[in-house]
Amino acid sequence: MTKLDAKIPEGSLAEKWTKYRSSVSLVNPANKRNLEVVIVGSGLAGASAAASLAELGYKVKVFCFQDSPRRAHSIAAQGGINAAKNYQNDGDSTFRLFYDTIKGGDYRAREANVHRLAEVSGNIIDQCVAQGVPFAREYGGLLSNRSFGGTQVQRTFYAAGQTGQQLLLGAYSALQRQVGMGNVELFTRHEMLDVVVVDGKARGIIARDLVSGELERHFGHAVLLCTGGYGNVFYLSTNAMGSNVTAAWKAHKKGAFFANPCYTQIHPTCIPVSGDHQSKLTLMSESLRNDGRIWVPKKKDDTRKANEIPEDERDYYLERRYPAFGNLVPRDIASRAAKERCDAGYGVGTSKMAVYLDFAAAIIRYGKAEANKRNIHHASDEEIQLMGKEVVKEKYGNLFDMYKQITGEDPYELPMRIYPAVHYTMGGLWVDYNLMTTVPGLYALGEANFSDHGANRLGASALMQGLADGYFVIPYTIGAYLASEIRTPAMSTDSEVFVNAEKAVKDQIEKLMNIRGTKSVDYFHKKLGLIMWNKCGMARNEAGLKMAIAEIQELRKEFWSDVRIPGEANNLNPELEKAGRVADFLELGELMCKDALERQESCGGHFREEYQTEDGEALRDDDKFAYVAAWEFQGESKFELHKEELKFENIKIAQRSYK
């Protein structure tokens, strides 16, 4: 049985990373030119890793299924990126960011990794500013910060409501510079369909050219998976429709343990579902909770319009229940609170499955401040409203425009209607301190690994982790492995192991194409999504999870006997792409339910209804479940659980409270 070794360095928490960097094995420049690295995914983690490793001298190949790295899903991140700069002089520090992240993750993250993340966070901002990322600035020119959930300091750097896009453009520029210099070979419209493992080590991938349909073999001394999360297992999510688990799942089947798959983050501020026609959901950035107030009517089934309900008949339930943090409680808490209010009959809108996010008070506050700035005395209500809306537009304008385009309602005049939706996945491939999986030479970065976020990610920390892994962690840690690979020559992709790996992928594709059933791929994906959302979504229980496992097994059998994939395999075929991804989701969904069933506690985004406090909060069991659950694939519907014990030596583990 494989023993989990996190390879955490010795020494005090604050010195681990510094000592590690000073003592880790290095590869000299001449040898780097002979070492090849395959990177799958071109989002923030992939692009930053590729640019950094190519700059160091490694030969890098980058693969993405989009037509350009600029279309990676990182572009959709809106609200900001955390860093412990303490620009506001409000008490922030590396340790406070570390503490907030551990606590926000409900004490289910590895201390050493999280502290390293906090340490390098400031470097990320410096790097991105140097690249020209247009962060918002204060009047005097200093970088601006705003608040995000789960913290009491302002540490989130942002670029209006399109922070992910601007950060990705910075990383993309660095990547394209290396492409132009010939250090990076870029393969767009390519999807990785298997990892090639030789003598127990990752030695390359099998990829499909999505335009021609041809299968290709690519060698690498190391393989980095930077392929994002698996939220689309629920069908409806805030993820791009192409986001999938295939690369990580193929690696799982080749020996990489999958960790904490049941840890799914539900984002509290999404535009509600409007009908069965939808294929994805739209996120309204958490940054809106920085200024917006969340409420529902105090009266059940209130049919009045929002602006017809007087102030004393509104229940600002987050401010009422969590006075210390108010609207800025962590995402899991805000999401469950919204669900509880709607389930109790206080929901709004036609579906009654929504709550209000109201900017009226913020508009007035900003308007009065702006009037003072402009030395306008005795400003009228209309002038204050106008000036306040100008400030809000500058901070959140693109988000407000997006909401209006989708719903037809003007959020400057009426409160937004929001409801929780699947957003981020804290689970992923298990990695050690070096970001290496249980397969030597195979690494996972960003959301593709089981992350530094424990059971719940704090807002604005995803961009931080992706860039930390790519810019400041993997350039050091990969050397510890590649230093011992300098005598390994590049392997011919005509070797038997590569040929056999390609044949296995080809056989799988032919098997899918030859089913010739009667139901579309989306039919199965939607059914899986409903099972997952209803029985392994915001709330889970033993009976529902057992039922979900049985239902998924039956759905998988039906898929492999009755799915219909039109077109040809050796050509452009989006339905074939989707079929392969849904096939993997059908297997992952079962593991998610098994993991949720095994974890008999509530923590972060994993809420078992049997384990909650009297006032409905998550109830952990630290004696039995303070571990990372790492699952080993052992065949269809067979997984073995391995446990990495979590030790808290620098933080006192306690019941979370945001009251």
TrEMBL record:
<keyword id="KW-0285">Flavoprotein</keyword>
<dbReference type="InterPro" id="IPR036188">
    <property type="entry name" value="FAD/NAD-bd_sf"/>
</dbReference>
<keyword id="KW-0249">Electron transport</keyword>
<dbReference type="InterPro" id="IPR027477">
    <property type="entry name" value="Succ_DH/fumarate_Rdtase_cat_sf"/>
</dbReference>
<dbReference type="Pfam" id="PF00890">
    <property type="entry name" value="FAD_binding_2"/>
</dbReference>
<keyword id="KW-1003">Cell membrane</keyword>
<protein>
    <recommendedName>
        <fullName>succinate dehydrogenase</fullName>
        <ecNumber>1.3.5.1</ecNumber>
    </recommendedName>
</protein>
<feature type="domain" description="Fumarate reductase/succinate dehydrogenase flavoprotein-like C-terminal">
    <location>
        <begin position="525"/>
        <end position="658"/>
    </location>
</feature>
<dbReference type="InterPro" id="IPR037099">
    <property type="entry name" value="Fum_R/Succ_DH_flav-like_C_sf"/>
</dbReference>
<keyword id="KW-0813">Transport</keyword>
<dbReference type="InterPro" id="IPR011280">
    <property type="entry name" value="Succ_DH/Fum_Rdt_flav_su"/>
</dbReference>
<dbReference type="GO" id="GO:0050660">
    <property type="term" value="F:flavin adenine dinucleotide binding"/>
</dbReference>
<dbReference type="GO" id="GO:0009055">
    <property type="term" value="F:electron transfer activity"/>
</dbReference>
<keyword id="KW-0472">Membrane</keyword>
<dbReference type="GO" id="GO:0008177">
    <property type="term" value="F:succinate dehydrogenase (quinone) activity"/>
</dbReference>
<feature type="domain" description="FAD-dependent oxidoreductase 2 FAD-binding">
    <location>
        <begin position="37"/>
        <end position="463"/>
    </location>
</feature>
<dbReference type="InterPro" id="IPR003953">
    <property type="entry name" value="FAD-dep_OxRdtase_2_FAD-bd"/>
</dbReference>
<dbReference type="Pfam" id="PF02910">
    <property type="entry name" value="Succ_DH_flav_C"/>
</dbReference>
<dbReference type="InterPro" id="IPR030664">
    <property type="entry name" value="SdhA/FrdA/AprA"/>
</dbReference>
<dbReference type="GO" id="GO:0009061">
    <property type="term" value="P:anaerobic respiration"/>
</dbReference>
<keyword id="KW-0560">Oxidoreductase</keyword>
<dbReference type="InterPro" id="IPR015939">
    <property type="entry name" value="Fum_Rdtase/Succ_DH_flav-like_C"/>
</dbReference>
<comment type="similarity">
    <text>Belongs to the FAD-dependent oxidoreductase 2 family. FRD/SDH subfamily.</text>
</comment>
<dbReference type="GO" id="GO:0005886">
    <property type="term" value="C:plasma membrane"/>
</dbReference>
<keyword id="KW-0274">FAD</keyword>
<feature type="active site" description="Proton acceptor">
    <location>
        <position position="331"/>
    </location>
</feature>
